[in-house]
Every structure is written in C-alpha cells, then in structure tokens.
Design goal:
heterodimer; A: about 170 residues; alpha/beta; 5-stranded parallel beta sheet; two-stranded antiparallel sheet; globular; B: about 325 residues; Rossmann fold; 2 domains; 12 helices; about 15% strand; EC 2.1.3.2 (chain B); transferase (chain B); Asp/Orn_carbamoyltranf_P-bd (chain B); pyrimidine biosynthesis (chain B); Aspartate carbamoyltransferase (chain B)
Chain lengths: ~170, ~325
C-alpha cells in the first residue's frame, strides 16, 4: 500500500473484518478489547462499535514498561492504565502502528501484571517495516513500506488521520 | 546551596534533601509523577520495572517503622533491590564513621541512599560526599527537614482541595521539634497557600518562627477559625519531661483537637496527622477516625510520593 492511499475507514474495516474472523475461528469468549495509549485507544474505541463488544474497553499505558526510559526518561504525567484482571481472559490488544515491536513487548509485559490471559490477539491499524523484535500481528488494517528516516503517526481522535514525517538521522 | 546540591548541572533532580530551594514546578512535578504511580497498587503484580537493576539502601540511624516501610515498598514497587540498614547512633560516631559507612556501601554498587538521622544536616553531608551516580533522599534529619512527608501531605491536600491559593492551613502542636512542620511550611508557601498558621504554646515554637512566612497563634480556637486544613503534629512524649509542657492532660485541654473545637474550622476542613497518633493527647479519637480525617489516606499516598522521588532522582522519569 502506498502512503497516499491510507484511508482510515478502509483500514479500520479491514482490521475489523480480520478480527471478526479471528473471534469466530478461535472461539473467543467475551473478549477484552485493550487499546494502547493513545492511538491504540482511539482505534479500539471504533473497533468496539464495529465488533459489537459490550465489555468496557481496557486502556494500557506502557510508559513504565518501556525499555528505553533510561535513555529518554519518561514524562512525569503518565495517565495510568485502566484494566480489569486479565486472568484467563481472551484479550484483543490494539495499537495504531506496529514498527519496531518494542511497544508491543512492553504492553505484553504489562498485561501479564494484571493476570495471566488465556490468549492474546494483536491487531494493528497499520504495519510498517523496521521490526527489531520477533513480534507479528494477527490482524492488520494495512501495510506500508517506509524509509528508515520516515515515521508514520496517527493524530486524532476526531478526525483520525495518518501522517508521514521525515525525521533527521540521530 | 540546597538547590545546587539537589539539582544537577542539567537541572535534573539528583538528591531530595529539603523543600527549600526547590521551585513550585518541582513540587508539582513530584505530585504529578506520584499521581501516575497510584495505579500500580491496583495491579495484580504491584510492580513496574523502572528501577530494575538499581540498589537502594535504607540507611536508618534512627528507628522509624512507618517511614522505612513505605520507602521499602516504594523501592520494591519500582523493582529496585532494597537493603535495610539500621545503624545505632553513638555520640562519637558522627562525621567520619558516617562517611565510612556510606563509602563501604557505595563500594558495593549502591545507587541510592535513603537516610534517616537524628542530626540535622546528615543527609546533606552524605549527599556532598557520594559518588556522582549516587542519589540521596532525606527521610528525616534532626529538627531540619522531612521533605517526602511534606510532599505526601501536599499530595493529600491537592487531592481534596485542588487550588492552594485559596487555602488557609493551620499546623498545630510541637512546631519547635518538628522537621515535618518546617518542611510543610516551606511546601505550602512554595505552592502559594493563602495563609499558613502555626498554633502552639510559646515553649514549643522556634524563635522568630514568623520569618518562615507563617502567622502565629497561641490559642487553638482562634487558630482554627475558618481554616481549610488542620495538620496536627505528634507530641513527642519525651518533651513532657523537659519542662516544656506541664502535662499531657494540660496540653490536650489547650491544644488537643476535639470535635467541638473543629467547629471553628470550615465545614469541609481536612484533618491531617503525620502519625503515629497519640489519641487523647493531640487529637480526640472521634476526630482521628471521623469523616474529615484523611490520616490513613496520607499513609497510602506516602508510597506513591516516595516512588516519584526515587524515580525522578534516579533518572527514570524526565525532570
């Protein structure tokens, strides 16, 4: 998919369709939809409606679990995670962009601090290249190929918009 | 001096020794960070990995179960390794032996000292001599300062009252010997409280206490008039033998907080106490356990505030 053709509605529909199939084939029971703060929460809110999930949304803030806080520090005002017990739950973890995989690693660590989930499915609005950890999504809204100096960012929540920026090399 | 010792060249918090010299932005940053850590207690695993691999030593030259325990829990909730060392104070073992103790522990790869000492300035002394990567947190020194206690009190007040600029706060009891009161006064003034009153008999007030920016009252009824927050201090029973007070009963009669006296304050006045409480000496049981008391909340907030101070000082959170 080219960067110009990133239509949020289409991406959301693709992601929702894939997750619906996963819920059926895996036989997920009363899945807990969890969005990763901030963009993941916006996407999860929209998916909740499309998938007809009644259970309240979980919100995960992975700031305390990042592996780079000793280099970059952490913002003092971290909004805490809001999550029920994940013990023996089917969890659908949602993020906006899957890039290096470090955010997902941190999110999985944090999920397990709230209990041991039965299974976790990963859905992302958009997947890009540049993985640094062996993490792959179960469902994606779309894929995009970007250069190492490019970043893709979701802005929102209303309207949701994907923006591509070029960053200076460190 | 305190500011330059507490903040590094980049303006980051390196040691937390006293409220003096720290600006309002720093006090608010500590409270904001503590706000973030409050949720950790609700997790099944009450830990976050921010200080994994760091070693914190609780170096207590003076006993204090409550303060030591909350520092220990705070460090453990940040995943640090914690050593608790209770060092008996000897009259001849100040200066050099204190430094020797610190240097020996430092050689074992310690990242932070949490220091409680009966001598004012002990934490500053250690902070001036530790290696550049080591942080020092003052857990109470002599009559000087108890900054984390003051911050947890401010955090508790902010939770209930939000805007410090509208608040009149009365601090009641043994101001003379209280490091907590000194730190609270500095914090309240830095945060812009409208008025800070100290209420105590003349024998339990420092000379020229007004210079700290407080209004002095010797009468509890007048001191409580229209206050939004009343902070009772612990009366140390050993003061009773020092001829500073006639008796516990006399102190309670004049300065004890009873339900009847509390009517002078605003209807939504908070009642606070750093603990441990002497029931029937500083405060009546019905007030300590009453609906306006936030004494147990203070204890809970102590863990979040200490987590915030440790994370900030060890650079896990941006300063």
């Amino acid at each position: 998919m080219s960067a110009e053709s990133l239509d949020i509605d289409t991406l959301l529909q693709n992601l929702a369709d894939c997750l619906r199939r996963q819920i059926e084939t895996r036989g997920l029971h009363d899945p807990l939809l969890v969005g990763i703060h901030t963009g993941g929460v916006w996407i999860a809110e929209r998916l909740r409606e499309r998938l007809g999930i009644d259970t309240p949304l979980g919100r995960l803030n992975i700031a305390f679990y990042r592996d780079d806080f000793s280099r970059i520090g952490m913002h003092p005002q971290v909004r805490p995670s809001q999550l029920p017990s994940t013990e023996n739950r089917d969890v659908i973890l949602i993020d906006d962009v899957l890039y290096t995989g470090r955010t997902i690693r941190a999110a999985l660590n944090e999920l397990f601090d709230y209990g041991r989930p039965r299974q976790v499915i990963l859905g992302v609005l958009i997947e890009r290249d540049g993985r640094e950890l062996p993490i792959q999504p179960d469902c994606v809204g779309g894929r995009v190929s970007l250069g190492p100096d490019q970043r893709i960012k979701l802005t929102g929540p209303d309207p949701l918009k994907l923006e591509i920026h070029t960053v200076e090399a460190p | 001096m305190s500011r330059t010792l507490q903040l590094d060249a980049g303006g980051r918090l390196r040691h937390f020794l006293t409220i003096e010299g720290l600006g309002r932005d720093w006090l608010e940053r500590i409270m904001d960070t503590a706000e973030s850590f409050e949720s950790v207690a609700a997790q099944k695993v009450k830990k976050v990995p921010l200080l994994r691999g760091k070693t914190v030593v609780n170096l207590f030259f003076e006993t204090s179960t409550r303060t030591r325990t909350t520092f220990e829990l705070a460090a453990k909730r940040l995943s640090a390794d914690v050593l608790n060392i209770n060092v008996a104070v000897s009259a001849t073992a100040k200066g050099e032996s204190l430094l020797d103790t610190v240097r020996n522990l430092e050689a074992m790869g310690v990242d932070m000292f949490v220091v409680r000492h009966a001598e004012s300035g002990a934490a500053h002394f250690i902070a001036r001599h530790v290696a550049p990567h080591v942080s020092v947190v003052n857990a109470g020194d002599g009559r000087h300062a108890h900054p984390t206690q003051a911050m947890l009190d401010m955090f508790t007040i902010r939770r209930h009252k939000r805007d410090f600029s509208r608040l009149t706060v009365a601090i009641v009891g043994d101001i003379l010997h209280s490091r907590v009161a000194r730190s609270q006064i500095h914090a309240l003034n830095t945060l812009g409280a409208r008025e800070v009153r100290v209420v105590a008999p003349r024998t339990l007030l420092p000379v020229a206490v007004e210079r700290l920016g407080v209004r002095v009252c010797h009468d509890l009824d007048a001191g409580l008039e229209d206050v939004d927050v009343v902070i009772m201090l612990r009366l140390q029973k050993e003061r009773m033998q020092g001829a500073l007070l006639p008796s516990e009963r006399e102190f309670y009669r004049c300065f004890g907080l009873t339900a009847a006296r509390l009517r002078q304050a605003r209807p939504d006045c908070l009642v606070m106490h750093p603990g441990p409480i002497n029931r029937g000496v500083e405060i009546a049981s019905e007030v300590a356990d009453g609906s306006r008391s936030v004494i147990l909340e203070q204890v809970g907030h102590g863990i979040a505030i200490r987590m915030a101070v440790m994370a900030l000082a060890l650079g896990a959170v941006q300063g």
